[in-house]
Amino acid sequence: MQLSTALDQDWRCPEDCAYCPQSARYRTGVENEPLVPLETVLAAALRRSRTEPRVFAWAPPGGAQAEDLEQVAERVRAVKALGLETCATLGLLREGQAEELKAAGLDYYNHNLDTAHEF
User: Fold this and answer.
1) Most exposed: 17, 33, 77, 117, by fewest CB within 10 Å?
2) Which SS3 state, helix, strand or coil, does residue 22 take?
C-alpha cells in the first residue's frame, strides 16, 4: 500500500465514469478552478516535504488537457526538486502524454481502470 498526501482542487472531469462524483455525468454545480499557481503547489509540497509520506499527489482541474500539460509537467519538475515523489490523476491520457509526464519526473500515475460493464 502506498500513502500520499494530496493537493485538492474543485473540478469537473470531462470523463463519464458512473462511480465518480466529479464525472461529467453529474450536474453538481461545481465549476472548474483555474490551475493552481506554481507557487501554491510548491508551498503545499514544501509543507509536506517535512513529514511522511514522501509522495505528493495532485489532481489538476480538467484532467490531461493538452494546453495544460506543460504547466502540469512544470509543477511535477518543481515538486521533484524538493525531493518528493510525485503522483498525478489526470484521467485518460492521449498518445505521448505519459511519456511527457515521465520525462518531467512523474513517479506514479493514478487512474481507475474501469472494467465493469456498469461504468
Assistant:
1) 117
2) coil
